[in-house]
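Q: Hi! First time doing this. I have a protein sequence and I read that you can turn it into a structure. Is that right? Here it is:
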Amino acid sequence: MTKKGGQKFYGYKTHTKIDAKSKLIKKSVTTSAEQHDSIPTKLLIDSDDYGQELYADSAYIGKSVKNLMRRFEMKDRVLKRKVRGKQLSKRQETLNRKNATPRARVEHVFGFCEQSLHGMFSHSVGFARNAARNILTSRVYNMLRYEQIQRLGMN
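A: Yes, that's right. Below is the predicted 3D structure, encoded as structure tokens:
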């Protein structure tokens, strides 16, 4: 169980690594809803990400994520969030706006999966079925995106 906006949610979450340039899904991990978002980050980041920028929402915070970024010499583009009782500094607000544009490209993937593949909500019971469904949704999305890249000559 996890809470978002005061509402309780049960089930599973999918954590996805997306190539910002091509919008192809590179890797996907399914976890139970109660796991913190920073935990599966170590499964998504690998040696191919060495020296890259990590764009993520504010849920992907913590020492483990910072250590991963340091180990792979990644540039921190994780959105900053307010801490209880404190406002974001002007610099943090500026950085969040600057980092929001590249993140928006990645959000297109989730929007497409939601609208066209009905992929964000599952009635499947059990971890294995939900994980398989998420993998298949990612594969179908990549096939559709690849066809679009070829058709539009975006190689």
